Structures are given as C-alpha cells and as structure tokens.
C-alpha cells in the first residue's frame, strides 16, 4: 500500500485535532497519547466510516475516546481495531458496543476463560483500580472479525485501511493498521515502543518479534510515519534499530 493516493474526500472536522487533545499525523488521521500508561489511541476518518485504533484502559477512557471522535468528525466510530490483548489497549473496548471490532485471529480465545482472568490480574498489578478492572472485564466481548493475514477496510471517500496480522511478537496476536496517504501512517501497537524499552511479558514470542518488525517495515516502507503503542511517532530507521536491538536481546539470528 505504500504510495497510495490521499483520499479525495476527507470530511471536514468539526473541531481541530489540537482543540480535542489529539495529534494530527496526516489528513484525516490522528492519535492521542492517553494518560497513565502513555498508551496510544488512533483515529482514521473516511467519507463514510470512522476507524478507532485501540480503546484505552477502562470503560470511562473508551467512552471519552468515543465522544472525542464524534466531536472531531460529527459521526460515531464505526470500526475498532485492537492491536493486541493488553489491558491498556483493550479494556475500553466495551464502550464501543455498536462498532465492528477487529483483532488478530485467536484474540477471541485469548480473551476467554483463563485469559480473561489474567487480563484482570495484569490490569490491577499495573495499577488499574480493581473496580474499574472488574467492570471492563465483565463487559468485554471478543472481536467479531478475526484477521488471519491482511484485511482491507473501505471507509468511503477513497479511504482504505489495511489491517495486517504481522505477529506473533509482542504477543501472539499483534495487529498493525496501515493508512495510505502522504505520509502513510502505520499504527504498530506495542511491537514498537518509543518511550521505554519494548516490554516482553510472559505472552511475548521473542523469537518471532524481529521477523514481525521486518514484515511491518515491508508493509510501511521507508517514508511512513510509524506510531508506537507508547511514545512519540518514529520513522523506519527507528523501527529497524529497535528490530536489531530485539534480535540481539533475545539471541535471534539474522
């Protein structure tokens, strides 16, 4: 998708990105750095649909993101892509109850049974209020759409977005979101982190993580803007350097 044209019709925003606390990355594409864990949420605006990328760490945060998206676009969010099943990215998802939700294949299994219990425990361990964790986990519904390879969403007005299952790496269920334009924008989830060293928890697949970043770079290309799960936006050189550092850290041969 690198080099695709900017959509011919991107709706006029009802307020500016900055007025709503968002950072504009390209026409009709922005992101917000959420308080607490500095987690990124993204927004992609098409002629007919609006895609949110990740949903925050609690129901209240998800509801706030949804409200801000409506203030920005004048329309409700129609699609939600979840980059991976960690609490700070996913527990706001129940606030998007009437939205088409997408995740990497297998994410529904990861959010059931023991996985749901571990999600709750992890959220509380990292400092989320137990009552907020209880509320969000109880309301969490698995994604309706499972992405096994690549999935193109048509948001209207010439805006197409590619959902790519590029993992495993940070988790077994890593989904990237690529938005063609000038520049192309790539939402990486926690496959890439800028504000700290990439976190490899018990659900990471370290031996496959460098290869996941190789796939991300092939899809995004040299001139894309890469949006980490945490921290400031970066370029392809940063992603490549982080890929090499992860390979060295985990002893992965070229």
Describe the SSE topology.
Layout (H helix, E strand, L loop, with lengths): L22 E4 L2 E5 L6 E6 L4 E4 L5 H15 L5 E3 L5 H4 L9 E5 L2 H4 L3 H12 L4 H10 L5 E3 L2 E7 L2 E7 L9 E5 L5 E9 L15 H12 L4 E6 L5 H15 L4
Parallel strand pairs: 4-5, 5-6, 6-7, 11-12
Antiparallel strand pairs: 1-2, 2-3, 3-4, 8-9, 9-10, 10-11
Helix pairs in contact: 4-5, 6-7
Describe the structure.
With 254 residues, the protein is α/β, with parallel strands linked by helices. 28% of the residues lie in helices and 25% in strands. The protein has seven helices and twelve strands. The strands form two sheets. Strands 1-2-3-4-5-6-7 form a seven-stranded mixed beta sheet, with helices on one face. A five-stranded mixed beta sheet has the order 8-9-10-11-12, covered by helices on one side. Helix 6 packs antiparallel against helix 7. The radius of gyration is 17 Å and the shape is globular.
- What's the quaternary structure here? single chain
Largest sheet data: 7 strands, mixed
Helix content: 25-40%
Measured by DSSP, the beta-strand proportion falls in 25-35%
Tell me, what's the shape?
A: globular
Structural class: alpha/beta
**Alpha plus pi helix count:** 7
**C-alpha-based Rg, rounded:** 17 Å
- Per DSSP E runs of 2 or more residues, the count of β-strands stands at 12
Give the low-pLDDT segments. 1-6
Mean pLDDT: 93
Query: Could you give the distance between the termini?
Result: 26 Å
Please state how the strands of the largest beta sheet are arranged side by side.
1-2-3-4-5-6-7
Q: What string gives the helices and strands in order?
A: EEEEHEHEHHHEEEEEHEH
